[in-house]
Amino acid sequence: MVSSDDEQFALGKLEHLLLFRFRRLRDLISERYRESNSDTGKLKAGDLTILALIEANPSISQTDLARVGGVDQAVLVGILDDLEERGLALRERDPADRRRHKLEMTPKGKRAVADLFRRAFDNEASARAVLTDEENAALDSALRKLYQHVF
Question: pTM of the entire structure?
Answer without folding.
Answer: 0.81
